[in-house]
Amino acid sequence: DAEITQSPRHKITETGRQVTLACHQTWNHNNMFWYRQDLGHGLRLIHYSYGVHDTNKGEVSDGYSVSRSNTEDLPLTLESAASSQTSVYFCASSEGRAGGITDTQYFGPGTRLTVL
Amino acid sequence: AQKVTQAQTEISVVEKEDVTLDCVYETRDTTYYLFWYKQPPSGELVFLIRRNSFDEQNEISGRYSWNFQKSTSSFNFTITASQVVDSAVYFCALSRNDYKLSFGAGTTVTVRA
Question: Is B35 on the interface with A (CB under 8 A)?
């Protein structure tokens, strides 16, 4: 079955270290998204991609970067981890129908990141 | 700018009671999409429903029903005869014709046996 996976599921790191969270989907979806979930804020969009070599900043992109070298993967990198980036991170993908018609996003299981 | 407000932070009910979750949205677009997701204690996000702005027909799926009213910019969600398995955080989300989602802060529903 097609799916979307994230790794690692849990990560503890130290302030200042570079961290990369992986996201892999096998639906051949065009669109991929990264969100962070914090209490009281719901999910907030970090970065997103509409296709290979396309990346865009979301509402909370400072301190994060992504790259899309193939359809299946959108890794999220924290260049220099900060305690404020302690959160649960979700990756999502959607088919990406022509004309911007927003289709359903399907989410990965999440990665819980703790920055000490 | 678009915004989703879920004013109810937490709701606690006894099993078999009905519970309604409110969702109010703001957007200047005439074409938009509304979603509900469920996040059970295990943490994953489960898609429940997607509606577009041109379809105001209410929808029922088993014990779940949704009431979409453009006049009040609301997309409310009702769980009928709640069960313990309905305990979760429920998120309402809004999108324009740009694939991106804007989420509300979520409502935590606790169903007590």
Answer: yes
Per-residue confidence in pLDDT tens, chain B, 113 aa = 789 999 999 999 999 999 999 999 999 999 999 999 999 999 999 999 999 999 888 888 999 999 999 999 999 999 999 999 999 999 999 998 788 899 999 999 999 99
- Token readout for A95 is 């088919």
Would the CB atoms of B43 and A109 count as touching at under 8 Å?
yes
Question: CA-CA distance, B65 to B76, in Å (whole number)?
Answer: 8
> Which residues in B lie closer than 8 A to residue A36 (C-beta atoms)?
none
Q: Which two tokens stand for residue B39?
A: 């996040």
DSSP, collapsed to helix, strand or coil, labels residue B34 as: strand
Smallest CA-to-CA distance from A38 within A102, A114, A107, A94 is with A114
Interface-testing mutation among B32, B35, B45, B108, with chain A (most A C-beta atoms within 10 A)? B45
The verdict on a CB contact (< 8 Å) between B47 and A104 is: yes
Question: CA-to-CA distance for B51 and B32, rounded, in angstroms?
Answer: 9
